[in-house]
Batch of 3 targets.
Target 1
Amino acid sequence: LKLYSSKLAPSPLKVLIFLAEKNIKDVEIIDLNLAELEHKKPKYMSIAPNSRVPALQLDDESVILETTAICRYLESIYPEPNMFGETPIEIAMIEMWYSRVTYELSTPLAHGFRHTHPHMSKMEDQNKEFGLSQRNIGVRALETFNEIIASKEFIACDKFTYADIQMATNLNFLVRLNRLELKDYKNLNDYVTQIFARPSFSV
């Protein structure tokens, strides 16, 4: 297995954290230089035509794109420790919170960054008005999730799951990239600090 990755972006970092949580060591990591647009060069695009990172290339040269699809594939091969749920209610709750974090919180913050940050001008066809409106939606979501996490140790259930990788990693990247301060949302800041103290997050 070959994982085309980069520690500079949240999506590939999630897979690296997932590998570390499961202590998976037989995946070759190929680090791409995103700053030099290595992911947009023909060599990589022959593997990932959408030029997105990460990409998992199997031994038969099949390629799996998209972070969650990669992690679900790896979970099927390395089922322990379980990260996507074992009981019906665990599976449902992890899926629900993963989706809520993705679409209510992460997506607007990601659009805010991609469409307003000058460093993204070479990578995105920017629409500043759209980016600012999405950033405002993201700020309201931060306020909502700051209340949600106040009474929880983990976002989905009573253990660390893939939903926590999604939430903590995105918050750590996207809040500051939108020129916001995570410390202004105390409960979220405490949550991210706790999650990032896990050894797997030091990859």
Note: The radius of gyration is 17 Å.
Target 2
Amino acid sequence: MPGMDLLLRLLIAHVIGDFLLQPGGWVRERKVKHFLSPSLHIHGVLHGVLALLALGELSHWPLALIVAITHIAIDLLKSYQNAKSTKWFVADQALHALVLFGVWAWASGYAPAGDLRSVWYDESTLAVILVVLLLTRPTGFFIGVFTGRWSKELGERKDNLPNAGLWIGIIERLLILTFVLGGLMEAVGFLLAAKSVFRFGDLRDDQDRKRTEYVLIGTLLSFGIAIGVSLWARSMIG
């Protein structure tokens, strides 16, 4: 991919500006004053300067100006939202990344449209995308339906975090996919062993045999499905 060093410099500049050179007081101030916050504009100008340094040519100042203006606009929008919300944090960083990608594409003369079209017809890439999607909500939904007959009998525990089990399942299945595609099958066994220590140890202490069996069924289903579809994706990649 042409100009990858430029994209990396832009991303490094963004991380420095957003996480290393932004005091907490700036964030708190714009949550109160919004567009009238001086720190909001200083922060945007700082990102413009860092982007210009990353671009490495003074003639690219219009692109740096775009980075500065869009950064102010995105952060202004976020200032009206819950700053501690995960979804708004991810959306904020995704928008910044999208701007940087556009700046990089323009500065390097890279035309990603052709590559994006080629992805649509690449079987290995499509297989991985399909597996990633399947291992998130669909697999969790299937396991929930399959184990539903027992969950009703056991009832809800009061000490569980909301949706924690769902996210644990999604993360573990995506980790399994990563390990299988990377040829690290032993890491899958380590992951299963680690989960057994944390989950089944607590259940054993409670002497709750039914709940232990319930968790074991869900875990084996989750791991089995993840390993199966991950191996299929690996075979598609060749």
Note: The mean pLDDT is 86.
Target 3
Amino acid sequence: MVAGLREVRGRRLTPLRQQVLDILLEAAEPTKAYAIMDILREKTAKSITPASVYRTLDFLLQHELVHRVESLNAFVACTDTCEHEHEPVFMLVCAGCRQSREVSDLPLYNIIYAAMQEKKFTVQGSIIELMGICPQCARAKAKEQQKGT
């Protein structure tokens, strides 16, 4: 992963950028900006404002180090190596535990992109989110149903 990085694609990771990235790398689920701010306030005596957290997230988004999970209004660290640009991703979001998984599938993206071009549709976002249930939550739900019968 990228913990410890100090520069990305020629852009310096300030201490705040590194802290926010580290928080997201350690998070078990997509994390909202205000939760990031709360964690930062616990870790430092410096005053942290929402604007500084959002500016930092914008930088990390722009450089594809994090992704925004729109359906949860939250952020996740890129699970790719983050040392190179990559194609837009698909986010698999579990409705049960809220964890997300990043999936890069260039052939599938190319099919979707070609269909959009055919319809003269201009892409403005680069993440497609799919809501579902992860295997762990599905097993837990099946156990609950077995107990109920």
Note: The chain has a mean pLDDT of 85.
